[in-house]
Amino acid sequence: MSVHYWRNIDQPHKNSFVSLKHSYHGETLGALSVTDIAMFKGEYGALLGQHATVLNPDWRNAGPEESARDYAVRCAAQLEAHLQEHHHSIAALIIEPLVQGAAGMAMYHPIYLTRARALCDQYDIHLIVDEIAVGMGRTGTMFACEQAEACDGASGISPDFLCLSKGLSGGYLPLSVVMTTDTIYRSFYDDRLARGFLHSHSYTGNPLACRAALATLEIFEQDNVIATNKGRAAYLNQVSQPLRDHPQVKNFRNTGMIWAFEVSSPHDDFALRCFQLALDRGLLLRPMGKTIYFMPPYVINEAEMDALAEHTLAVVAATT
Ligand SMILES: Cc1ncc(COP(=O)(O)O)c(C=O)c1O
């Protein structure tokens, strides 16, 4: 849609994308071509468009004396160098805001989003914010991009495209949306067929899924979910303290309702062992390599959080 927009306004040379290292945007061909995870791309390389990647601001890669913010600023400077050189051919920058899920729950400072928005404005490039995993309250605000300060000091940055799914229907029915600006929308609103947006799917606008999304939005409002989750997050942080203090646990991190940490374990099959031991205790953990993460449902109660922290600690102890 971004490339089509640039064609519609007579800039067909703007037809490439930039994504972050270790990005994940899905496995359909367009999305896969801006995904940077070899495991998913490997077999389909010949079918994919070639697009550039830039340093991701994952604070685990910061220098020993460098703060998460400083590292994010350094990564944004590298983005700027890339955009400066290639902006004529770039349609959009696509990012997972604040947390790169498939990269191993890589978390980063919101200053990167502020800088990315400003750079996209400066170089006339769309900013696509993929909130499929992090939207709908997962990072502590309805949308992760609300946590970045805009350049004028206002809270929240506005992307040119915002992608949502997963939590949009409470996880009950498959639904996704791509939201865009009126400017972009208007460029497609034309009697000439070639200017129209002709992507559609058999189940586009599925009424049942849309109803589930409306019901989900109602629950967000009625149950004050975002505010209530703050209490839940504080509680899980509190009961996870022994886990955080475990000598083999590294980089314990939390953004909203996402937690992650690495485990120093000698076992190459750590993920499988961990999964099995957790399952034996009635817990569904799906480690990525040696990274364990929690993305609990928003209905999790204190007893369940106690059990989550306690059993995970036991699983870590048994796998190190
Ligand atoms: C950030 C992100 N983008 C895109 C996708 C892909 O969504 P779908 O599987 O619905 O194509 C996912 C799925 O996990 C995701 O986490």
List keywords for this structure.
320 residues; alpha/beta; Aspartate Aminotransferase, domain 2; Aspartate Aminotransferase, domain 1; 6-stranded mixed beta sheet; 3-stranded antiparallel beta sheet; globular; binds pyridoxal-5'-phosphate
Compute the average pLDDT: 96
> What's the name of the CATH homologous superfamily of the largest domain?
Type I PLP-dependent aspartate aminotransferase-like (Major domain)
Shape: globular
CATH architecture of the largest domain: 3-Layer(aba) Sandwich
Domains counted in the coordinates: how many?
Answer: 2
Outline the low-pLDDT stretches.
Answer: none
DSSP summary, beta strand count: 11
Element string (H = helix, E = strand): HEHHEHEEEHEEEHHHHEEHEH
Query: Which radius of gyration do the C-alpha atoms yield?
Result: 21 Å
Distance between the termini: 48 Å
The helix content, as a percent range, equals 25-40%
